[in-house]
Write a structure and sequence with these properties.
The protein is an alpha+beta fold. The chain is about 35% helix and about 25% strand.
């Protein structure tokens, strides 16, 4: 149940304004986190791929990624989720 926060490298600055995005990735069980969830498509890497594609489709650049591996959705008291909400409030 580790919260991981990473900063993907941002592309070189351009003269045009580009939307920024943050992503939150989560799997609910330790087994999914350890197994990778490849077969069912719910793995952190699979979620990362889908969110990157969606951001690109929207013309946005992902500036921050928040990951909760093995955290239930029964509560909002998840470390990376709370970190993301705090990040959004300040940025």
């Amino acid at each position: 149940m580790t919260a991981t926060i990473t900063d993907p490298a941002a592309p070189a600055a351009t003269n045009t304004a580009q939307a920024s995005a943050v992503v939150y990735l989560r799997v609910s069980t330790r087994e999914q986190a350890e197994r990778g969830g490849i077969a069912e498509g719910f793995s952190i890497p699979a979620q990362r791929e889908v969110t990157a594609k969606k951001a690109a489709d929207l013309g946005a650049v992902i500036v921050k990624e928040f990951v909760d591996a093995g955290e239930s959705a029964k509560t909002a008291h998840r470390d990376a989720l709370q970190d993301m909400l705090a990040y959004i409030r300040t940025h």
